[in-house]
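Hey, can you fold this one?
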Amino acid sequence: MSVISHGRHNTSLPLQSTVRAGFWIRALALGLDVLFIALLYAAVFMALAAANVYPTSAADVRWLAQMVFACIILTYTSLEVFCAASLGKLIFRLRIRRQDGNPAERWMLLLRWSTKQSPWILTLVMGVLPHPVFGWLQGLLEMILLCGTVPALNEDHLAWHDEWAGTAVWKVGRTGPPIPV
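Sure. Predicted structure:
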């Protein structure tokens, strides 16, 4: 049985047999992640409004909104690199591991994350270097990634970014005595 270790804390999470997480539970985890990101986004703009720090032109507002949104998404989703799961995945006890069920190396998690988040990385690049080719490339990557999630409906439950990085999302369970209620 494979075990997941979480750094300083001694909380081991073995795999529940060899079950990969299916498309729908991953979609639910993504839904929670979208909710958390929306709350963070709203909190940032409420803080900016409370501090009376806001751009004066509509173009500056749009640019600021895009940059803040991209930064929040990239920061939030970087949990997948450091914790092998986003907050939504953690809540549903899903973890990103190697396709064989063993813990994924950091470079695999980084490759998976950078592939999934490449459109948002390009959003930041376009904010600094506004060139039409970046917008075209961003749209192409979004289309590839969107179409690449459909294979997660297959029996192997691997999206394109999982195939590319050699990872898979696994369902895990907690060991040890039950928590008293």
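Confidence is low (pLDDT under 50) at residues 1-12. Let me know if you want another pass with a different chain boundary.
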